[in-house]
Amino acid sequence: MEAQATATVKEALAALYHHPDDSIRTAADRWLQEFQHTLDAWQVADSLLHDESSNLETLIFCSQTLRSKVQRDFEELPSGAFRSLQDSLYVLLKKFNKGPPKVRTQICIAIAALAVHVPVEDWGAGGIVNWLSDEMKAHPEFITGFLELLIILPQETSSYKIAARPERRRQFESDLSASANVAISLLTACMGIDQLKEQVLEGFSSWLRFCHGISASELASHPLVHMALSSLNSDQFLEAAVNVTSELIHATVSHGSGTTAEQMPLIQILVHHIMGLKEQLKDPSKDEEDVKAIARLYADMGESYVDLIAEAGSDDSIQIVNALLEVTSHLEFDIYSMTFNFWHRLKRNLIRRESYVSFGSEVAIEAERNRRLQIFRPKFETLVSLVSSRVEYPEDYHTFSEEDRRDFRHVRYAVSDVLLDATDVLGGDLTLTVLSTKLAQAYVSCNNEQNPKWQPVEAALFCIQAIAKSVSIEEREILPQVMSLLPCLPHHEQLLQTVCSTIGSFSKWIDAAPAELSILPPLVDILNKGMSTSEDTAAAASMAFKYICEDCRRKFSGSLDGLFQIYHIAISGVGGYKVSSEDSLHLVEALSVVITTLPPESARTALELICQPVINPLQELIQQGDQILQQVPARQLTVHIDRLSSIFSNVKHPEVVAEAVYRYWPTLKSIFDQRAWDTRTMESICRSCKFAVRTCGRTMAMTIGAMLEEIQTLYQQHKQSCFLYLSSEVIKIFGSDPSCAEYLTSLIQILFSHTVQLLRTIQDFTARPDIADDCYLLASRCIRYCPNLFVPTEMFQRLIDCAMAGITIQHREACKSILSFLSDVFDLPNSSDGGNYREFINTIVLQRGATLTRIMIAALTGALPSGRLEEVSYVLLSLSRAFGENMLNWARESINLIPPQVLTDAERLRFLNIISDAASGSSLHTVTDRFGEISDVCRRNKTVQDLVQSALRPHDLTFTVVPQQLS
């Protein structure tokens, strides 16, 4: 059998690497991947690695296979197999001591993974590091392989590819910490071998986080530290030396490293050597990767010692800040952006009160804050000047690929964040002053007749609009000049786009500007030009128009005719505007918020005017007959309905909007009736109705009955999930209204009765996640807003049964809605008005508790992704608090189903204790953390996870017979 499997592996590898047919190569790759999960893979991979005739392709595949088997499938081996596996891996390590390097690395990772799995005593006295020390001394000819293993050991402690229990992983870390001195001694002994210098540095970097027992003063004079710092000036070893130095920096500020005074001997020597690299940053002959390495070191130093820098404010501190400004001045984004986190952290130190609490009194705190700000403000001014030039459009931008344009936008977003950090230190007005100087210089070059350049002006304006929210609305020196400059700028597309964005960003300032400045009319003219130039400028202009109308709405109330003209041109699509359908919604919203400022009678007239270009096209389609209405593309309807949604959402005159909804209901009903099969149209029209309900509230009573009747009828025929979502909004507004009880009872009964027929199995849930999501959102709303119409009904218990079938749906939103519904059910009896429902809920849950608990524990241990852990934990927490001892018994039954090879007796007891503690008041955060560890144990590899799920059978709902009615 083994010989046959070995031959098949060789054939598959030959096909994978050399067969000309793609389909054959794909099939071979699939077979090899499946083979890696079999028991035979252990012996075959081991055998081929020892086989002298194996080629490089075979060796690489087999070393990867053996490594992954040790990492994830170690528990497949019988208990006595460790020794033979250890011996075999040791032989292989010596065999591949001189290569191939890829194979040797995989063998080293496999040995490290084996060390994580087994207790320290299995390696002899002192564990694997002492064992390795003995082997290195006894067999120096294999030093290369041994040294690589020494490097990899600490790296693998953080590898979650290794299917080890959490406590075993913690113990391994503890064992390595106890052996750190031995490892450092081994590395020190290898220092004298020139060809091993890079490996020694790499090993020192790996082990530094375990060197808790070595004091800072010892490290400061340690030969390995001296070697690393002296290697910073070596091109050959620079990267390795930087890695060590970074780890040393982190060690001086890590948790438990001691006081700053204790770390100072090491900090001083590190800063001294790093500052000695400053000239290399500006050396044009330096390789870019080396410059990146040095820049990373400066960034690490700055971020780690930012508190010391800020608190001292000394000449030495300023020298470090100046060095970081040197890095920020570099032309490459990958290099200068490394400093951005330092500036952010320095800003936080300077402005947060927590940085000054040790100074005691408010007077002392304020004095110290002012001292620090006075020292560092000039540096932030320089920072603003530096980064503001980084956002200029390149001359060849028009040739950029979409990916290059995306990268350029990313640079701009990052620079915007830095500018906002600077405004927190300097204040918006001072930052604006710095940027206005840039704008003035750029405007001169823009008007240069020989070589006019718009890019510097655009960059300055981009930076100015980025800080708009930080600029005082009382600012009267710079912004009037900026606003008066905008109409004078050339209408280059990218520049015009930024000009429009700048206008929108300063809408609040424009509203507060003195009337005598007459700022608004010329700016509206610019926005008109923007809407006529290109789709990109139209998008920026439409958004700016929305902001202007929101913040300057009262200034527009007397000039509605002009606004309606702009609106009608944009909506009609004629007249030269290049506003897309999506961007036209900004204009709809803009006029809607202006209408909100009008008195009711004027608002009625204005609302009619704004709705006409939206409703008329819909009515024209309806008048062409049912057949035409059913055949038109959804887009022809939704473009208008979405505008109606925006109007209903933003015109804050409930009675006026309610009248409009009543007036237009026949039009909406025709679309409901003829397009109920069309998901896209129904989602759009339900969204419009939802906003109408939200805005109008109970003033919409004259339409709500007809709307609910429509929803009930159409849902029974077409099962569109958006009907459920619209019903959720209706329940929220009208749920507590006694006059609507009859309507709502009928709505709840019909919607839920038809939904539970659709969702009988987990396969049904998976096929209809949108229905599941909106159904349980609606159910939760019913519990919160009208429990009296919902909880005492048969439909309530049927929805619980339905939820149990769908808990393990993988769709994130649907799953969260189901889990939220269940926790709402368990929490209801303990709510302020929930006592009336305790008996109903107790009867239902007590009949289903064992099955429900089993499914929830299955979800916790692998049936749902680990990212759903908090939601699952909360359901278990709620169930534990509501059903105490019963829940503990149900949990015990379920946990006892999990096979002994998955959970030890101690882990089972820990699992039960978590549930017991949850019942007695543990916080969600504590419970989630503790459940997370048990969850990791049960998911540690695929075999274990499959065993758990096979035992708990989350989809097997015949485990407990659930009655359909309350007794």
From TrEMBL:
Gene Ontology cellular component?
A: nucleus
Importin N-terminal domain residues are 28-79
User: What GO terms in the biological process aspect are recorded for it?
Assistant: protein import into nucleus
Name it: Transportin MOS14
Identify its protein family: Belongs to the importin beta family.
Q: Where are the transmembrane segments?
A: none
Domain (Exportin-1/Importin-beta-like): residue spans on this chain? 100-244
Q: Which Pfam families match?
A: IBN_N (PF03810), TPR_TNPO3_IPO13_2nd (PF24138), TPR_TNPO3_IPO13_3rd (PF24140), TPR_TNPO3_IPO13_4th (PF24139), Xpo1 (PF08389)
Q: Which PANTHER family has this protein been placed in?
A: IMPORTIN-13, TRANSPORTIN 3 AND IMPORTIN 13
Q: Does the keyword Nucleus apply?
A: yes
Q: Where found in the cell? A: Nucleus
Q: Which InterPro entries match?
A: ARM-like (IPR011989), ARM-type_fold (IPR016024), Exportin-1/Importin-b-like (IPR013598), Importin-beta_N (IPR001494), Importin_beta-like_NTR (IPR051345), TPR_TNPO3_IPO13_2nd (IPR057941), TPR_TNPO3_IPO13_3rd (IPR057942), TPR_TNPO3_IPO13_4th (IPR058537)
Keywords of the record: Nucleus, Protein transport, Transport
